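Homework help board

Subject: predicted structure for assignment chain

Our instructor gave us this sequence and asked us to write out the predicted structure in token form, then describe one feature. I got the tokens but I'm not sure how to describe them. Can anyone check?
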Amino acid sequence: MEISVLVAAVGAAALVLLVLLVVVVTVTVTRRRRSRADLEGMLVAAQREADDLRRRLDALATPPVVEPADFVITQVGDHALEASSPDDGVAVPDRLVLSATLGEPLVKVAAFSHGVRRALSAESRNRIWFEMRREVRASRRRRRQLRKRLERDYRASLRAGEDLA
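My token output:
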């Protein structure tokens, strides 16, 4: 009676292994098909992109057509300024000059001071402190695990050396 139960168990195990083997083979084959289709799609996209880049490079490599200038500067310096009358110049108000010279640096200083104020706020400092503490704890944990693993390996090598002796 025990032999028949053993034979039945071995047969059932063989059947389960056969079903498992068929499932693994079908999954592998479908995965290969799927990945091959993906790779072909990626290859076509890469070829299209290379063609587009080649066209853009050809367009940039051709020298631009330079048209001749309609005018030529013949005078430079004080004589050219004396020839023109003072009424030809455009009057620029002082406010416009101040706005152009001070406006941009003032905006940069305001943006910089806003960024510094946000960086030094209590919320940012607390977030940075929390992240640093978490990172320090994680590094300690990693070092402790490494130390334990090295000690375990060292003890195993000592035991292996004692067994050989």
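Reply (TA_rk): Your tokens look well-formed. For the description, you could write something like this. The chain has a mean pLDDT of 83. That's the kind of observation they're looking for.
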